[in-house]
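testing teh design pipeline on a random one, pls ignore if ur not involved
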């Protein structure tokens, strides 16, 4: 049994991870900016300050913590109005992560699991699934900040003796998902025609319960020490397959239009959304061989089971909003 501190414990991944850790018999403490509902059952530390500048004050003296799983981050922003996006992402995702790691090490924490992103490596797979040792080529401020945080934490681990584990997921989905994935379900629910019928490129995703299961392994398995792992569902679907599956589980027919990729790219240029269109029509598959062979991990749920659970949540909580 371990005592695990989870930052960002009240987010999409944090909720699933805390539940998975408790189910596995571990003690869990959540470090959050705002208190959750009183019935959440989570032992919480509140750190309302920006970028964990007050972490030494927020850190409470109690039983020894064995591992920190760092989920808290400045997330990818589609329409960022910050004057200097690189500086804003760096302040939270690099400086903030280092403050948590340093505070943890001062208190004897032996392992730090950092949830990075596949965007620290690339936006597309260039013809084969991305491996952990591929040369990193992040394309935006978010990806650059995640790569810089990986490097800074690995250097800190080498200097301090702390065990650092890096985990890179693709897009994470599941109940309470937000942003583009939620918008996609809204469009399917409303019967909107989607120009995605001819997109054959495959995209790796990860169901939140699969990701939480992998993080439990990374937090507790001695074989994870100082490793970097890609984590994804076993199946990489095309965008059209994803839409059809969601439509089936939402009980709404998916209206897919057969629009050629060239026309989509032209529309992207005209609307200033070329980067979004390129990501949509490009392949992004992850090679998860390393975590499978090193930790013996495999996703406990299929992609179809994950999409079914996500659609069930949507039907139960969003019908009124999206109708």
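output:
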């Amino acid at each position: 049994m371990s005592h695990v501190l989870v930052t960002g414990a009240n987010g999409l991944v944090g909720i699933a991870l805390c539940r998975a850790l408790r189910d596995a018999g571990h003690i869990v403490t959540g470090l959050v900016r705002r208190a959750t509902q009183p019935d959440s059952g989570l032992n919480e530390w509140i750190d309302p300050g920006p970028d964990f500048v007050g972490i030494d004050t927020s850190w409470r003296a109690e039983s020894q913590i064995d591992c920190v799983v760092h989920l808290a981050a400045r997330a990818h922003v589609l329409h960022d109005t910050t004057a200097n996006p690189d500086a804003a992402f760096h302040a939270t995702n690099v400086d903030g992560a280092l403050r948590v790691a340093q505070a943890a090490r001062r208190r004897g924490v032996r392992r730090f699991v950092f949830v990075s992103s596949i965007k620290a490596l690339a936006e597309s797979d260039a013809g084969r699934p991305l491996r952990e040792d591929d040369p990193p080529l992040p394309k935006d401020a978010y990806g650059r900040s995640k790569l810089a945080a990986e490097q800074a934490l690995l250097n800190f681990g080498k200097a301090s003796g702390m065990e650092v584990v890096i985990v890179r997921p693709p897009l994470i989905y599941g109940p309470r998902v937000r942003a583009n994935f939620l918008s996609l379900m809204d469009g399917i629910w409303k019967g909107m025609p989607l120009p995605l019928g001819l997109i054959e490129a495959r995209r790796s995703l990860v169901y939140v319960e699969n990701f939480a299961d992998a993080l439990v392994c990374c937090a507790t398995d001695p074989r994870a020490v100082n490793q970097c792992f890609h984590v994804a569902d076993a199946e990489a679907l095309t965008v059209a397959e994803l839409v059809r599956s969601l439509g089936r589980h939402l009980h709404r027919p998916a209206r897919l239009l057969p629009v050629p990729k060239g026309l989509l790219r032209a529309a992207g240029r005209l609307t200033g959304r070329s980067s979004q269109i390129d990501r949509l029509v490009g392949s992004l598959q992850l090679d998860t061989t390393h975590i499978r062979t090193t930790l013996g991990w495999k996703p406990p749920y299929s992609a179809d089971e994950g999409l079914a659970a996500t659609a069930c949540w949507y039907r139960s909580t969003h019908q009124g909003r999206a109708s």
